[in-house]
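Subject: sequence -> structure tokens, single chain

Hey, anyone have a minute? Need the predicted structure for the following. Not urgent.
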Amino acid sequence: METSAVKVLIIDDEEDICLMLEECLKDEYKEEVEIKTFLDAKDAIDYIKTNALDIIITDMNFPQFSGRDIIREAQKINGSTKGVLVTGESGDEVAKYAHDSGLYLLRKPFNFDEFINLVAPFIRR
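Reply:
Had a minute. Here:
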């Protein structure tokens, strides 16, 4: 029995980050993932309202929303949506924020292996 592709949404206001994350996923998982990217948080939230997603990988901070707000919106549609916050911020408070929110944290700068190891459990079901 064939399983459907894992639906992944990547949101970051840095286009290079979106492209890098998308390429990493495509290189590693090929047809196992269906990826959509957004540079604007509001556009992403509009998309989320009509699309169930398996994984959201988002920058932690946007002018009008937090990454947590974006992931929570997706979890209203699909309660099992996994969330990964991407941030350049350091410190224990950022890790506590992610942990307390039930989200995963990916700190910039990161490498291919760190990223793939973080998302692998969500894709290899």
